[in-house]
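I would like you to sit down with the record closing this message with an eye to the fold:
=====
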Amino acid sequence: MNDWLDRLGGRREDDTRLVFETPDQAHLAMDATVMTPLVHLGILDVSGADAERFLQGQTSAQVSLADGTFAPLTSFCTPKGRMLANAQLWRVAEGHYRLLMHRSLVAGLHGHLKKFAPFYKAELRVRDDLALIGLIGREAPAVAEARLDVRPPTAWHQANGDDLQLLAHPGPRPRLLASLPAERAEAVWQSLADQATPVDNAIWRLHDIQAGLAWLNADQADAHLPQMLNWEALGGISFKKGCYTGQEVVARAHFRGQVKKRLVRGQLEGERLPAEGSAVEDANGKSLGEVLCAELDAYGQPEVLAVMSTREAPEPLSVDGQQFKRLQLPYPLERLDPESLATKA
C-alpha cells in the first residue's frame, strides 16, 4: 500500500527514512513551507462497542477526552510502569480510535493489546493502508486549508475531512500531520506541491527534537517511565483517571518525586550524528544517560534528545567525543493535565 512513496522522487535509505535532493532543507523549513512523507510513523486502530472502555484500562490518557476534537498524547506501560509505546490518540468516529506511534512499535503493541482484546468487544487493526504526510512552515495552516479543505486545528487537536484527519503538533514552526487513505496520497501530495517543497522526513524528526518530543522505537521499549520522557509535562498522563496498567507506579513516581532521569535537549559541537543509545558522559567519562534521537540542524550540527540523570555532574559533557551543550526545552518541567489542554481548541 506504499506504492505512492515510490513515485515522489525521493530515495529510501531504509524503512524509516526517505530523502529528497532539496538543498538546505532545515533552513527552508524555517523560512518557507515544506512537506514530507512521515514514513517513520505508523498507525494502529482500535474499534468496537467497547473500544473506549478497553483503551481506558490500558493507556495513560483519559480516553473520553479524545472526542474528535482533542487528540491527546498517551502511553502504554508494563505493570512496572515502563513504556511499551508512546503515542497520540484520536477518535475517528464513535467507537473508532486511532493511535500514532513509531512504526517499529505498531506490531509489538498490537501483540500486547491483543492479549486483552478478547475480553471486550474491540478489534485491533494495523493500518498499512493509510498514508501520513507532514506540513511544516508559517504558511502551513493556510496551505492545508486551501489544499485539503480542512480548517487547521491547534496543537494536540484534530480537524476532520471526508476521509482524512488533520492534526497539529508543536514545534518552532507550525506543523500539521495529515492521515489519509494511501490511494489518495499521491494526488494530495501533488496538490500540496504547488505551495510546499519536499524535504526528508528527518526534518520532521528535527522539529520533534526542537519541540522536546521523543518518540520511542522498538529498541527503546520497556526501559523508561513516562516521566523520563517528560510525558506529564507534555500532557501525556492523566492523573485524574482510574486505573490502567502501570498506573500505580507512574502515580507514585509523580507524587513522591522519584523521577531520577529526565529528557534533556542538547546540541553537539561537531558534525557526526550519534547512534541512538550513545552514552552522554561527564568530564570523568561516567555515563549520565543515553541519546534517544538525533538529527542535523540548519547549521549542520546534531541536535539530540537524551534521557539523563538529574544529578549534577562535572562538565564538560560529551557524546562520542563531541561536546554536549544543553539547550532549553520549550516547555516547563511541571505537570500539565490533559484535561486543561482539551479546552484549548
About this structure: The CA atoms of residues 26 and 298 lie 5 Å apart. The longest helix spans residues 103-114. The chain is about 20% helix and 30% strand. The longest strand covers residues 83-93.
